[in-house]
Design brief:
The protein has a 7-stranded mixed beta sheet, with helices on both faces. The chain has a two-stranded antiparallel sheet with strand order 6-7. The chain is built from 7 helices and 9 strands, in the order H-H-H-E-H-E-H-E-E-H-E-E-E-H-E-E. The longest helix is centred in the middle third of the chain and has 11 residues. The chain is α/β, with parallel strands linked by helices. The radius of gyration is 16 Å and the shape is globular. It has one domain: Rossmann fold, CATH 3.40.50.
């Protein structure tokens, strides 16, 4: 299924408020991600939210396809970006070798743990050889829900690294960072950068904050 109905319902009901909160793009992390790609590379964004990250990457001259799993949020992002924003559930991704990079900021954290390997495999398949993939997760040990009834997989760093490695991802790099989220509560984040195997290894830089 790769989605939780209560989580999707929350984002549908809160779409305008969620996308209008003035969230800034993750500039430092995006820059480090883009540094691994050729100018004008093709990028798929999963869970684009208000569209701020896609907007930043488009302004840098990259060929970005923004998507979100909630039609209401996709519609708000489309207003901001002025380009089509497709509604795409993670489990419906079925492209092969289509993208140089895939950006998934704070969205795959809603995938049930048992289904995450399948989604990571779909993302792996959608990348070209040597393609780069970024995702971020709220860290933890046991899956659960927050005060808004949103589901989170809450992985540990070791669990994530093992899950990625079993699926053939190369050059897996994980950084832990303290921060917050929509609920404004202190949150421990895990930022993951990985690559699809190619004839050359990636040497990931430390993410700028």
């Amino acid at each position: 299924m790769s989605h939780d109905s209560n989580t999707l319902r929350f984002y549908g009901m809160e779409a305008i408020k969620y996308t209008a909160r003035g969230q800034e793009p993750s500039r430092g992390r995006i820059e480090s991600f883009l540094a691994q790609l050729q100018p004008g590379a093709t990028i798929l964004e999963l869970g684009c939210g208000g569209g701020q990250d896609s907007e930043f990457m488009l302004a840098k001259g990259f060929d970005v396809r923004p998507t979100d799993g909630t039609p209401e949020i996709a519609g708000e992002a489309e207003k901001r970006l002025g380009i089509p924003v497709a509604t795409l559930l993670f489990g419906d991704l079925d492209e092969q070798g289509a993208y140089d990079g895939i950006w998934a900021n704070a969205c795959l954290l809603h995938i049930p743990r048992a289904e995450l390997p399948d989604i990571l495999a779909r993302i792996h398949a959608a990348l070209k050889a040597g393609g780069v993939f970024y995702a971020s997760f709220k860290a933890g040990e046991t899956e659960g829900r927050d005060e808004f009834d949103r589901y989170y997989n809450y992985p540990s760093e070791s669990w994530l690294r093992d899950t990625y490695a079993k699926l053939g991802w190369a050059s897996i790099w994980i950084e832990a960072q303290s921060g917050s989220g929509y609920d404004n509560k202190p949150t421990e984040w895990l930022h993951v950068l990985a690559a699809k195997q190619s004839s050359y290894p990636h040497d990931f830089p430390i993410f700028a904050m």
